[in-house]
Amino acid sequence: MLESLAFYSWTMEENKDQAHVGLLARVARMYFQEGLTQAEIARKTGYSRPTISRFLREARQERVVEIHIHEPVPRNTALEQALQERFNLKYLRVAKSQAQTEAQMLSTLGIQAAWQLDEWVVKGMVIGIGHGLALTTMVGSLTPRGLAGIHVVQLIAAPPGKGAQPDGAALAQRMARLYGGQASLLEAPARPALPGERAVDLALLGIGGLEPGHAGLVNSGCMEPEGLPALAQLGVVGDVCGICFRLDGSLVETHHDCITRLDAGRLQRIPVRLGIAGGAGKGLPCLGALHAGLVNALIVDESAARVMLNHS
């Protein structure tokens, strides 16, 4: 008799638990699949709105509901964690290389950057943009949006008629069109002020190195290839917007033909300074840019990330 009562009690408890899980699933389905608000679900079920909120929280805790966020590119979260622990970046993504060609790697970084901008960019922002292939792929991956008051500011320019890659003016104009905003361009030889002297909210930056074929100052037409050995002798590992730096972050005064809008101090005061670069040859330039305070957010690939970790 006692065994029968115990079995009956256990069965009742199990049925009660199953009924509660069913209720959680029903509430979750109405909220996540049918798109009803918590107030609408409360009216349909007869529970209070705070109770519906508790049910939804419980559904996630008990894994009745599992939310999977599918990001645009695969990430190496182990490298992200290691870099974040060392540098405490405002934002960091390490894209998996997956045996890509250079063009595919740049496309991957550009897609990741464009996806993140969809989340960051809001009406009224002032966005500064540099130049380089990584930024070119980013702008090419942007989703058109109508955002009132957006102003895109060109941060660096090469002398007219020079440069093997799309210049900052073309990138600033295209980005402004995609966002429904305005572009402010640099004109040689002056360094004009920002529109209305407004501060830049977000800087989008390429990170140049000194490797042949990947030297930003050369590719942009700001320097002849013959000038690179002199930079290397000074300990320069890279540049951001024409600002050259050593691996330890110390800045180096150099002579080149770039026209820049910001000096290092003004660039360092921009709240979010996102650098985008990939390939093993960009590892040391990324590291130097971080030490110099020219960037405080990064989108890189695994090759660059591993070099950064090995030298930090």
Question: What can you see in these coordinates?
Answer:
This protein has 312 residues and is of the alpha/beta class. The chain has two domains: 60 residues, Orthogonal Bundle (Arc Repressor Mutant, subunit A), CATH 1.10.10; 234 residues, Rossmann fold (3-Layer(aba) Sandwich), CATH 3.40.50. A seven-stranded parallel beta sheet has the order 1-12-11-6-2-3-5, with helices on both faces. Helix 2 packs across helix 3. The chain is elongated and about 75 Å long.
Question: How would you briefly describe this protein structure?
Answer:
This protein has helices at residues 2-33, 38-45, 49-61, 77-87, 102-120, 133-140, 168-179, 216-219, 228-233, 264-268, 283-292, 302-310; strands spanning 91-95, 126-129, 151-154, 156-157, 182-184, 202-206, 236-240, 243-246, 251-252, 259-260, 272-276, 297-301. With 312 residues, the chain is of the alpha/beta class.
Number of strands: 12
- Structural class from helices and strands? alpha/beta
Instruction: Classify the beta-strand content into a percent band.
Output: 5-15%
Which value, in Å, is the CA radius of gyration? 26 Å
CATH topology of the largest domain: Rossmann fold
Terminus-to-terminus distance: 72 Å
